[in-house]
Structures are given as C-alpha cells and as structure tokens.
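(Structure overview)
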Amino acid sequence: MKTLAELEEIRKKTFDEIGMRTNTDSIRVVVGMATCGIAAGAREVMNAFVSEIQKRDIHDVNVSATGCVGVCRLEPLVDVIDKNGKKVTYVNMTPERAAKVVLEHLANGKICLDYTLKEEK
C-alpha cells in the first residue's frame, strides 16, 4: 500500500465483505461449517459464494456460516433463504456448483433443482 487511494480501496472492499455477512434484510446464504462440512470442502464453497456474489455485483445477499446441520453425508450443505423466509437446501456443494447457484438462483431466481435433495422412491 503506497497511496491513500489504495488504502481507501482496501477499506471499501472490507466494508463490502462485512456488509455481506451482516445485512439482515436480504437473501441469506448459510453454509454448514461444522467439522464435517469443513472436511468436505465447505470453506472453499463459502469462499466461492462470496467471490461470485462480489464478481456479479449482487448487493442484497448475506453470506454466513452455521454449525452442524446433522446430515454429514450430504456436506457441504448450503441453505438459501429468500426475503420471505422460503428455504432451499443445496447438498454436496462444490465451488463450481456455488458459482452456478449464484448465477441461476441468486441472480435470476431459478432454483438449481439438480443440487437439492431428491425424494427417494
């Protein structure tokens, strides 16, 4: 960092990231970050959500972590909760799947059904 402009850019980026994690009047993306989730790749999934949301300049999304959801075999788990409280749970997430969820679900309102839990018959 050599200039005030560089410092201001770092400040802006930090506040944008903090806002993404604390805004409560928005769509919520909740990533399961218990030990099982982290072992399955949840940290990379969460980073992918944050990165893709920033890249697409989406402002009404809050990304946060939660503990154990209780379905370890489906980790990493991600809940997307809309402003009305409707929840969609995505399972076996990867950073690539996270990018697709941001593009299709968060940006365009289309649920990625292939990544949700299927009813067993």
Q: What stands out?
A: The two ends are 59 Å apart (CA to CA). The mean pLDDT is 88. The domain at 24-115 is CATH 3.40.30.10 (Glutaredoxin).
